[in-house]
Amino acid sequence: xxxxVGIDLGGTNIKAGVVNENFEIIAKASVKTxxxxxxxxxxxxMAKVSFEACEAAKINISDIEWIGIGTPGIADxxxxxxxxxxxxxxxxVPVKKYIxxxxxxxxxxxxxxxxxxxxxxxxxxxxGAKNAVCITLGTGVGAGIIVDGKILAxxxxxxxxxxHMVIEVDGPQCTCGRKGCFEVFSSATGLIxxxxxxxxxxxxxxxxxxxxxxxxxxxxxxxMAMREGDAAGKAVVDKYxxxxxxxxxxxxxxxxxxxxxxxxxxxxxxxxxxxxxxELVKKEVYxxxxxxxxxxxxxxxxxDAGIIGAAFLGLESLA
Length: 319
Description:
By secondary structure, the chain is an alpha/beta fold. It folds into two domains: 3-121 and 304-318, ATPase, nucleotide binding domain (Nucleotidyltransferase, domain 5); 129-298, ATPase, nucleotide binding domain (Nucleotidyltransferase, domain 5, 2-Layer Sandwich), CATH 3.30.420. The chain contains eleven helices and 13 strands. Strand 6 and strand 7 (90-93) form a beta hairpin. The longest helix has 25 residues, at 231-255. It is globular and about 60 Å long. The mean pLDDT is 95.
């Protein structure tokens, strides 16, 4: 049996997992990232949790094939560095050099959204595809694109920022500086904003009851209200799916993947989200007249996608 270590480096936690050749996580370890602090210290902690995960898996660090790291920001896998990661305070960090002082194994790095997409590609909803796109609907809209089995990172290693294509010129302000981005409408944050706006416009809406009960708006409230027959809740869900379909249709028209999978907490809504989304995309996609079109599915791996995808970055490098 072969073993690999995948690390999900986040702004809050550093999570490591030992993954076997069957794509199963057999042990995990984690530590707080505690930003801001020196990048070298964070890299030392990545080595530390790698040792701890191996110990929990009852194997030696020498038993693993390599370590893969999914990181926010830009990752240079050729040189084993992180040129830029704003929320970590990283700039030109030699991750490979730092970790190999403790662990003499190959080190691979990729953007965290790309690593999660690769996880779905090798072991999740996109398994078996040749070309795939994976979109995560969270605080923002993250994405990873797989072409012929390889992660598409772009010439400056910052590719796949699908969340920042504009789908409504002069729309609401996005954190990237532009207006009307896909992310503004289709992230969980965007859904919450639209829910709040609808509740303020209709004080009799069930949305306000849900807010009073929970003390804050959530991405679930519009769907909950819709299921109880609330018109305002249904209007929010319809609007959300309309914008989501627009962004997904644009993506399919550009990349023509075999499979496009969507993940994130919003996707826990299941069919009430997925079925109308598929119908809208079918009507709008450029290749709608053809029999063979992109299959849209829900991601399978959840929060484990980043660890599994990172663990198999070595395979991606060999593809």
